[in-house]
Write a structure and sequence with these properties.
Structural class: alpha+beta
Shape: globular
Strand content: 15-25%
Number of helices: 11
Number of strands: 10
Order of helices and strands: HHHHHHEEEEEEEEHEEHHHH
Radius of gyration: 21 Å
Length: about 375
């Protein structure tokens, strides 16, 4: 066991922290108010290698490990979870899926651009009636010999209006159930592919979330990912890695709120002394820090499992379940420590509280994580 970060990991963390403080922090409140997608910042993150963190350098990626990924995600999420979820989706759900399961032609055509930030990707699994129950895909992809025709609706799609490349999960043969599902690459601008209005969300308001419509969208056979019928397995394995990214996002939201609360408690005075000296506040800080450190160990363990080539389905689910719980609980406490100021946008903690909630919902709700964990335990 070694709980110390390597010099390389420290450099990566510090680079992400510097970017978050100098580039993301200015304007973060305004972007949240206006629901503004951070287009110029996405380009800068691509230039820094944040959009292809774990991708092999031969495809334009940074070639880093999963530990580096969660370090970057935590630092970005402390400041702007809307920016960090763009990084998470592009890395975990799009780049990983293409690199692990895509053909060489698909990698050369799409992954090389996604890894450098020239393209941004989106992952299209959720539907109006198929969120947690991913096997109930209503979107169909009918085989027409040399191409498929896709029809259906996808909703809650991160990067929905800004992506260049969309990975779409659809049912090809309903009689085969989960074995009749495939994953396809659809390019923006394809005939019949329509982007609905942007969602007006509680949190991560700078993130671009849309409903997508597919009306007789023709997709070449070359754009199917993997062998016929492998789409469900592709989606589930991709989401396992995605949960590490969202767990790191939740960790960052929680640790960002804690840092703000600790700083404020050392400055704000009540009853003749700084409020951190009052046991009611001091004990809140102790609980926050302990829970955040516990979440950090779970997130790092999941990332380590992935780096070691071990099965990380259970560890990633545990990390996401616990880190998202900590994020929700302790952003609320951060607002409480700030008192009335916590309810004011200028102090940032109210935004972190709003951003925290989604980490318990997307890429598998907390209830789904418990199903994954319990099934894994029963099989052992």
């Amino acid at each position: 066991m070694d709980f110390k970060l390597s010099e390389e990991h420290i450099m990566i963390r510090d680079a992400a922290r510097d970017f978050a403080q100098t580039e993301l922090l200015p304007g973060v409140i305004e972007r949240d108010n206006k629901q503004e997608f951070p287009q110029s910042l996405v380009k800068k993150m691509g230039e820094l290698g944040f959009l292809g963190i774990m991708v092999d350098p031969k495809y334009g990626g940074s070639g880093m490990d999963a530990i580096s990924y969660v370090l970057i995600m935590e630092e970005l999420s402390k400041i702007d979870a809307s920016a960090s979820v763009i990084v998470s989706v592009n890395n975990s759900l799009v780049c990983y899926g293409l690199e692990a399961y895509g053909s060489e032609e698909q990698k050369q055509k799409y992954l090389t651009k996604l890894a450098t930030g020239e393209f941004v990707g989106a992952f299209c699994l959720s539907e109006p009636e198929a969120g947690s129950d991913a096997t109930s895909q209503a979107t169909t992809a009918i085989d027409h010999g040399d191409h498929y025709v896709i029809n259906g609706t996808k909703n809650w799609i991160t990067n929905g209006g800004r992506a260049d490349v969309y990975i779409v999960i659809a049912q090809t043969d309903r009689d085969k159930g989960s074995h009749g599902i495939n994953a396809f690459i659809v390019e923006k601008g394809t005939e019949g592919f329509h982007i609905g209005p942007k969602e007006d969300k509680l949190g991560i308001r700078g993130s671009d979330t849309h409903t997508l419509q597919f009306n007789d969208v023709k997709v070449s056979k070359e754009n199917r990912i993997g062998v016929n019928g492998s789409g469900f397995r592709f989606a589930m394995k991709t989401l396992s890695g995605g949960r590490i990214g969202i767990a790191a996002q939740a960790l960052g939201i929680a640790s960002g709120a804690f840092e703000l609360a600790l700083k404020y408690s050392k400055q704000r005075k009540a009853f003749g002394t700084e409020i951190c000296n009052h046991q009611a506040i001091a004990f809140k800080l102790a609980d926050m820090y302990t829970d955040i450190e516990a979440a950090r160990m779970l997130v790092m363990k999941a990332a380590w499992d992935k780096d070691q080539g071990l099965n990380y389905d259970k560890s990633s689910a545990m990390a996401k379940l616990y880190a998202s719980k900590v994020a929700m609980e302790h952003t609320v406490e951060a607002v409480q420590i700030h008192g009335g100021n916590g309810f004011v946008k200028d102090y940032h903690v109210e935004r972190l509280m709003r951003d925290a909630k989604i980490t318990q919902i997307y890429e598998g709700t907390s209830e789904i994580q418990k199903i994954v964990i319990s099934r894994s335990l029963i099989k052992e």
